[in-house]
Amino acid sequence: MIPVIAVLGPTAVGKSEMAVRLAETMNGEIINADSMQVYKYLRIGTAAPPPAMFKRCPHHLFHVLELEQRPDAAWYAGQAADVIRQVYERGHIPIVTGGTFFWVKTLFEGIARIPDAPRLAPETFDDPYTELQRVDPVLADKLHPSDTQRIMRGLDVYYATKRPMSEFHAQGNQMFGDFRPIRIWLDMERAMLYRRINLRLDEMIKEGLVEEVKNFLDKGMAPDIPPFLSGGYKYVVKYCQGLIPLDEMKEKTAQEHRNYARRQLIWLRRELQQGKLMQVPAQDSALLNLAKDFIRD
Predict the structure, then answer these.
(1) pTM of the model
(2) For residue 49, what are the CA distances in angstroms to 76, 202, 240, 254, 269?
(3) Which domain holds residue 142?
(4) pLDDT one-digit tens code per residue, 230-276
């Protein structure tokens, strides 16, 4: 089994820097697990590592997709599994880091064998969640009514196959590799985390977040490409279109980042309760000691 270290945590906790320090100490290589940082060209709004950080150790699966592409968990797990095997064959330690926890879960635990299905527009239904309750109550019971992405995925599958997605889930998972992972949650007091989120947004704007978006809109890029629909970009797009003022853009974008952190923390706490995570303070010594003990085992 291939040992893999996964450095996880909410947005702005400092995962990238901590993972790189770990890689420098343990002869490791970084594998991205952030669904926005896989896109080319967009660095500021995705909070991707700066160029200087990439020089400190090898990084993989950053900036590999065009902006119109729509990666999913199965695509990611297949790509990441191949990279992990290559890193291990070089005699290095694979270190997965990012905030898209469902991708990490899929990488290590597999995913249901669900056929491809054409995407339906949410506007197809008066209330997508109510429709999912009708056609697949088992899946609907597991989802929050605001989880539009997974609700629509369930409806896509049902209307393409005439079978509830929950039936495919019950058939067992497709696995992507024989891994022995340790998932480490970098924890931080919430008030401090929110301060870091607000300060990071200020830095993004100073660094050119607005110009990053405006550059692509001016070139004719559609405002509804996948990354521009994310919380980090959607209000910046509206500001660049002249639909909202600067102060509103800042306030709503910061709130989107905080809401995202809250959702991530809910996921992390659930995984911790299930015994799938190790929780440590967001500092070098705690992470390094835990990782070294894991590799020695």
Answers:
(1) 0.86
(2) 19, 17, 24, 19, 26
(3) 114-171
(4) 999 999 999 999 999 999 999 999 999 999 999 999 999 999 999 99
